[in-house]
Design a protein that fits this description.
This protein has 369 residues and is α/β, with parallel strands linked by helices. It contains 16 helices and twelve strands. The chain folds into three domains: 20-129 and 315-330, 3-Layer(aba) Sandwich (Rossmann fold), CATH 3.40.50; 131-216 and 345-363, NadA-like (Rossmann fold); 219-297, NadA-like (Rossmann fold). The radius of gyration is 20 Å and the shape is globular. It binds (~{Z})-2-methylbut-2-enedioic acid. (~{Z})-2-methylbut-2-enedioic acid (CIZ) is lined by residues 63, 83-84, 156-157, 171-172, 242, 258-259.
Length: 369
């Protein structure tokens, strides 16, 4: 569907740059957490964390993009591994009074917005996201104020302050149905901050959208030519693509989906080989569910990742067993949000959750983004 974007005529604010300096700071913190442990060190850390989780009445919720160690520990200690929304929902339903959120800052904030009565701690509170960094609340607010005729829809990967100014929050799993719903009401959409997910949704729905020009440092780097070449070597492989990737990569996909959607697609019993374009943490779940299958990393330009892998988000990799143990011991890195902001941010998040319930959309189980 082709609808002329008004982006061409609209002047967007100058976004903060994700500089080499910002990336290397995150990469250096990540390197401290990913540094090899001896077997004895690893066991001692795992024992200590398991004991402290019980002592502190805490539960570990980890994102699909965290390390295998953290995902395994979350599962084995009675916690949970999921996307950001399901992490927050699990935290809400679980009786523990402390949630340890292994992920990036907006995930800790979403957990706190939905669970104000709980203590929310993060292994590293500086772990952020390029999309969040590229959408500061003051720029976003000014932009919304300048375009009041648009309904503002923000992706989950934004700060509590940005969510507080938005009309809707969406995850990649529910973006399409919500934008279609707004289209039926003839609403025009101001979308932030991921330009690739925004343009995917625009292509699929034909909605008139203003698209903020942010991007994810990992997904931005996937290369269509590399995927085409890999496909020659593995002609039977299905290509699974997260919609934060550029359009020419999305165009090569057999399945476009959120993290949960891509994991679900990897269960297809008729397919044994997959080329996967998303953060490398997702391979833990995919391989766990289908141990005999072949999962290949989609080729990437290599900028933005960690030295461990081009597909490892440097901020996600700042979560490790070492700082997890430390936070449980000290109670440091607690997420706090001003009540006024929290209450405002809750409104668009609730709107999304109510929409999902009314439409009977399992946000967690959508096969397609
Ligand atoms: O909301 C999430 O967890 C993210 C960042 C992506 C996704 O597709 O689930």
């Amino acid at each position: 569907m082709s609808v002329q974007s008004e982006n061409e005529q609209i002047k967007f604010p100058e976004l903060p740059l994700i500089t080499e300096d910002i990336l290397s700071k995150a990469q250096a913190s990540a390197a401290c957490q990913t540094a090899e442990y001896t077997l004895a060190e690893r066991k001692a850390l795992l024992d200590k964390i398991t004991k402290l989780l019980k002592q502190q009445d805490a539960v570990l919720v980890a994102h699909y993009y965290t390390s295998d160690d953290l995902q395994q520990l979350a599962e084995e200690s009675g916690g949970y591994v999921a996307d950001s929304l399901e992490m927050a929902r699990f935290g809400h339903d679980h009786p523990a009074s402390t949630l340890i959120v292994a992920g990036v800052r907006f995930m800790g904030e979403t957990a706190k917005i939905l669970n104000p009565e709980k203590r929310v701690l993060m292994p590293d509170i500086e772990a952020t996201c390029s999309l969040d960094l590229e959408c500061p609340a003051d720029l976003f607010t000014d932009f919304c104020d300048a375009h009041p005729e648009y309904t503002s829809v923000v992706y989950a990967n934004t700060s509590a302050a940005v969510k507080a100014r938005a009309d809707w929050v969406v995850t990649s799993g529910i973006a399409l149905p919500i934008i279609k719903h707004l289209a039926e009401r003839n609403e025009k959409v101001l979308w932030a901050p991921d330009r690739h997910l925004g343009s995917y949704v625009q292509r699929e729905t034909g909605v008139d959208m203003l698209i903020w020009p942010g991007s994810c440092v990992i997904h931005e780097q996937f290369k269509a030519d590399g995927i085409r070449n890999l496909k020659k070597e593995y002609p039977n492989a299905q290509v699974l693509v997260h919609p934060e990737s550029p359009a020419e990569v999305v165009d090569l996909a057999d399945v476009v989906g959120s993290t949960t959607g891509l994991i679900k697609a990897s269960l297809n019993p008729e397919v044994n080989e997959f080329i996967v374009a998303t953060e490398a943490g997702i391979f833990y779940k995919m391989k766990q569910a289908s141990p005999g299958k072949i999962f290949l990393e989609a080729p990437s330009g290599g900028l933005g990742g960690t030295c461990e892998s081009c597909l490892r988000c440097p901020w996600m990799a700042m979560n490790g067993l070492r700082n997890l143990a430390e936070v449980l011991e000290t109670g440091a890195n607690e997420i706090t949000i001003e009540e006024d902001i929290r209450l405002k941010a809750l409104v668009p998040i609730r709107r999304m959750l109510d929409f999902a319930r009314e439409q009977q959309i399992a946000v967690k189980d959508k096969g397609n983004a």
